[in-house]
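We emphasize that the prediction below concerns an isolated chain of 226 residues; any contacts that depend on oligomerization or on bound cofactors are therefore not represented. The input was used exactly as deposited, without trimming of termini.
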Amino acid sequence: MTYSKFNVLILARGGSKSIPKKNLIKLGDKPIIAYPIISAKNSDMIKDVYVSTDDNEIKNASLEYGAKVIDRPIDLAQDDSLDIDSMRHAVEYLDKYEDFIHLRATTPLVDTKIVEGAIRHFLNNNDCTSLRSAHEVSFPPEKMFRKKGKYWKGLYDLKHTEMPRQKFEKTYKPNGYIDIVRPKHFMKNDSLHGDKILCYVTKHTHDIDSYDDYEMIKKEYNNETV
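Result of the prediction step, given as a token string:
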């Protein structure tokens, strides 16, 4: 198949409430920001890797491992900042409007072959508005609760919480392993991914949002060759 190489964008702001300097915490002998950069650069299907950050330490680490850096304005790097706004900034900063891959430092154990599989799947289903990865979860949302005062209510219907999980369709959790997004869509719409999100199922993976997640990733890393 003839194809144009894809650029990769990694959003990595400096502030983090759950784990300070989260994008720079060590996994083995490298900061986690290094792993998606290295995995992407190992692929012949990738052109350039860009890191959008407001933080000089993240900038220096990204450059060290071969990425190019987009200097993100501080107002786009707040706790409530939206990915779509940082991505629009990156598109305008680079003046590049072709489809690109979104990887995350907080999902560091990225297999190059899985990324390439996602690219091929995307190219074979080009009528989508985006691609998102997800893994299967064993507990369906129909069986979950919300709180209503001092009582539980069903997330959907309370009677569903008493039914066996086998009665429900398989459920998948977006996991941040790889997304592919389209500036031609999100630069003129309020939705980053649109309403025709192409499925890409991966193995179960952890996103680092807490120290417990970090410990799980370290255990996974120590059992694998990355």
